[in-house]
């Protein structure tokens, strides 16, 4: 069984969720559509978006 949930990080509330017995993208897209119909976020955050970036190319503020 797979669970996909969308959480508002600021309020820590679950916006929407969906269960599926298979790992297919259809149940994820249904959940996203329902969540976006309820509310539209001002900021989209993907915590894994920088995984493809080379480590030596990163500039961290205040860190030398």
Please list the strands of the largest sheet in the order they lie side by side.
1-2
**Mean pLDDT across every amino acid position:** 76
Coarse structural class: alpha+beta
| Amount of helix | 10-25%
Report the count of strand segments: 2
Largest sheet: 2 strands, antiparallel
Are there runs of 5+ residues with pLDDT below 50, and where?
none
Shape: globular
H/E element order: EEH
Rg, rounded, reads 16 Å
How widely separated are the two ends?
A: 45 Å
Q: Beta fraction of the residues?
A: 15-25%
Give me a quick take on this structure:
The protein has a two-stranded antiparallel sheet with strand order 1-2. Helices cover 22% and strands 23% of the residues.
Structure explained in plain terms:
This protein has about 60 residues and is of the alpha+beta class. It has a domain at about 1-40. Helices cover about 20% and strands about 25% of the residues. It has one helix spanning about 25-40; strands spanning about 1-10, 15-20. It has a two-stranded antiparallel ribbon with strand order 1-2. β1 and β2 (about 15-20) form a beta hairpin. The mean pLDDT is about 75.
